[in-house]
Structure formats: C-alpha cells, structure tokens
Amino acid sequence: MNLADQYFAMWNETDVDRRAGIIEASWSADASYVDPSFETTGHDGLTEMVATAQEMFPGHRFALTGEVDKHHNRLRWTWELAADGQPAVAGGTDVVTLDADGKIQAVIGFLDFAPAH
C-alpha cells in the first residue's frame, strides 16, 4: 500500500486500533495536520481528528480524485468526500511533507468546496 493509499485508509478506517496502526506506519510521531476545519499534532491527535470527521459525516468516505504529484520530499493530491452513490459533499487539495524516513511529517489541506457551517 503506497503512502496516499495509507492516508485515505486512515480517514476511512472506523476501527480505532486499525486506524492507529495505519497512523503509526505512515506518520511521524510528531506529525502535524492543518486545514480550515482541523489542526492537530501527533498520533493521538490524528486518531481523534479522524473520529471527529467520521462523526460529522457518517457513512461518507474520502477518495483520491487524481494523480499524486511528487517532488523532493513533497506530495500533492486532490480528494473528495462522498457517501456511496452520492455526489461529493466536500473536496480539496492536500500538500504533504515527508520526513527523512518517508513518513508523513506535515499535511496542509485546502478545501475546494465544503458544506457551509
């Protein structure tokens, strides 16, 4: 499973222990995540953030929508959030920084569209 697959598996995994394993395998211990809705650091913070997103959007799944761009220690991808067979309710672009071991060190997320709150 490549890093983008692991990233989206993290967002979609509902079992806390399996999600923690995905995070441990793919994120550095002091990793950070920030987007307009969330800001967190560390494995525990990531686990809690995903649980919150799943509570906000029950039955929805995140999916990669294009190719993964890579240069140096940076990745960029686009995604959408949708329930099966339904139009996407949110979408965006993430810019990922990798650490020296190839794990996710930081994610900066930009929302292209999202529900109004």
From TrEMBL:
Domain SnoaL-like per the UniProt entry, residue ranges: 5-105
Pfam family, one: SnoaL_2
Taxonomy, superkingdom: Bacteria
Name of the molecule in the record: SnoaL-like protein
Source species of the chain: Kribbella caucasensis
